[in-house]
Amino acid sequence: MAQVWAVPGGHVPFGGTGGEPQFTSFDQLCVLNTTDSEAEVLLHFYYEDTEPVGPYRFAVGARRIRHVRVNDLIDPEAVRLDRPYGCVLSSPVPVVVQFLRQDTRLPGTVALTGTMAHPVG
Amino acid sequence: MAQVWAVPGGHVPFGGTGGEPQFTSFDQLCVLNTTDSEAEVLLHFYYEDTEPVGPYRFAVGARRIRHVRVNDLIDPEAVRLDRPYGCVLSSPVPVVVQFLRQDTRLPGTVALTGTMAHPVG
Amino acid sequence: MAQVWAVPGGHVPFGGTGGEPQFTSFDQLCVLNTTDSEAEVLLHFYYEDTEPVGPYRFAVGARRIRHVRVNDLIDPEAVRLDRPYGCVLSSPVPVVVQFLRQDTRLPGTVALTGTMAHPVG
Amino acid sequence: MAQVWAVPGGHVPFGGTGGEPQFTSFDQLCVLNTTDSEAEVLLHFYYEDTEPVGPYRFAVGARRIRHVRVNDLIDPEAVRLDRPYGCVLSSPVPVVVQFLRQDTRLPGTVALTGTMAHPVG
User: Fold this and answer.
1) Domains of chain B, with CATH numbers?
2) Residue B10 and residue B86: Cα distance in Å, rounded?
3) In chain D, at which end, N or C, are there fewer CB atoms within 10 A of the end residue's CB?
4) Interchain proximity C63–D48, CB inside 8 Å
5) What InterPro entries does the database record attribute to this sequence (chains A, B, C, D) (predicted)?
6) Which residues pair with B75 in a beta bridge?
7) How far is CA A72 from the centre of its chain?
8) How far is B115 from chain C (nearest CA, A)?
9) Which residue in D109, D100, D82, D84 sits closest to D23, CA to CA?
């Protein structure tokens, strides 16, 4: 477990086919909090051509998970589709973070990829 | 190797197409036990909106592997399809754990994704 | 880098479609040896229902990579298709190991999944 | 974070279908630099049958990411399609590196796979 996790390879696919929300294209961060304290996590997004944006905030309850679609993050600003990004998640308690992408840009197809995020500290 | 492993991003796809069992949609936990002792492993599932459920139990023999489909876990309760979850696996001896998802929701297609689980301790 | 790496979730898909060898279904182990010594690596395969089989042997030259399809391993015995396995790779020098699966069981489709192997020691 | 990262399983798919650049087949290295110093990173490519080639160089600004397609690396020489490779990335400051492959060899399909690179030191 760690309190800071990094994902360098973010990129929400542009466009999707099939029914929403189950066949939407998305990037997703999956957070597991096994502790007995609620975790108010902070996210910062890094880009190729501008200063980082954040913090984005969401809570993961004690003994709970939370799967957050990056597409749904809008405060302080929406994460644009088809724009390469990386992100760093910080938590006040140790958590585990996994990254998942679903790509349905092509009709009748689903592509998936993912990896555990990298524990920074 | 480690005795505790975590997977934050579980989600058994809802629905599958093609023949069973080879083309069913599933999430899978793959456990490798290279030790000379049988490992009775314990699984706890974490959810977004309720307390954790477990332990689920299964054995991995000495010098054996075991690939368990999450869909097949029914005791103490079935893991519902299309419900986000995370899980923690605990073993009395050091093991290695890998996570795999097969998604066949769309006719004539297979999507795969996976990652090594995160070693917690 | 490490001298021992583990992959718990092996399973060569049964059957493939499309031209060989580029569209065959396979599991693959990718080894990077950045040292100045040739690495004669040893592989042991673990199964659900029988004792481990090995060693399989192959060499990775100094400052070389080697991508080995599990389907191609035949000595001391062929690794059967559609049979769950795990494997442990041991090297006399530090290397890095990645696992990849290509699944072309369904006509006109390719599914890929992979992960870094787990460094054991 | 680490200053040296390794990817053993590189292989840019040969051929792609669909519009460029979004549906080209590619291997990609995604680098996140959260430090306050620009990172001039060095890449060395390892092959099955010849000495390593490099360094390739590119910069990742302070507090920036960079997603580089291996297909686009041409200096000191182009990385050939359909040729197995491994690579090692070295950075003067700590970074995080993720690997992604997109395979569109078959018409109307996208396959994705990826993993965090392995932190060497």
Assistant:
1) 2-119 (2.60.290.11)
2) 5
3) C
4) no
5) ASRT, TM1070-like_sf
6) none
7) 10
8) 5
9) D109
Asked if D104 and D110 count as a contact pair (C-beta separation under 8 A), the reply is yes
Give the C window 52-91 contacts with B, CB below 8 Å.
52, 82, 84-86, 88
ipTM: 0.97
Give the Cα separation of C84 and C97 in Å (integer). 19
D contact test, residue of A14, A42, A46 with most D CBs within 10 A? A46
D71 phi/psi in degrees, rounded to 5: -55, -25
A14 in contact with D at a CB cutoff of 8 Å?
Answer: yes
Output the CA–CA distances (angstroms, integers) from residue C4 to B1, B55, C107, D87, in the order listed: 11, 31, 37, 20
Q: Which of B96, B111, B114 sits opposite C118 (nearest CB)?
A: B96
pLDDT in tens, C4-50: 999 999 999 999 998 889 999 999 999 999 999 999 999 999 999 99
DSSP-assigned letters across all residues of D12-52: --S---SSTTTTS-EEEEEEEE-SSS-EEEEEEEE-SSS--
State the chains in contact with B (3 or more Cβ–Cβ pairs under 8 Å): A, C
End-to-end CA distance of chain B: 9
